[in-house]
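Hi P.,

Sorry for the delay on this. The queue was packed all week, but I finally got your sequence through. Input first:
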Amino acid sequence: MLEFEPTKNRSMWTYATCCMSAEGDDSPVELYMFSATQDRGLVELLTAAASYHRNNAKLDLSHTVNFGQPWQKDSPCTYGFISLPYLDGPDLEHAVISGYEREVQFYWLIPVTEAEVDFKKSCGVEALEIKFEESGFDYLNPNRASVV
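Then the structure:
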């Protein structure tokens, strides 16, 4: 796991998997999350997601992950939604890692509520993303209200 502290261009902490994908994977995937504060608990969440990906079922764009606990403290966000890296764009989404020579998909793991997961399942990914956009949801706020 990687931890990146805030910079002058980005005022939040970033946590990312490293080697969630392995040589020979058909579709290499890595995940990252943001936090307003330093939180080593996100290393645990990403480790669990990477382990699930390696040992149970491959994770990919639009999938959801059950954290089995709140994202941070008493957050109602107990799931993660695998999304495009909207804040970073296609250069990160389709990165070619030096020495690896293959494109790796980097996806944003957005903490979401159970109600948002249920909405995604019943109405679709696009409908959920529209709700996010319309509500102007604060993806850094662990106590944010559900958008549905």
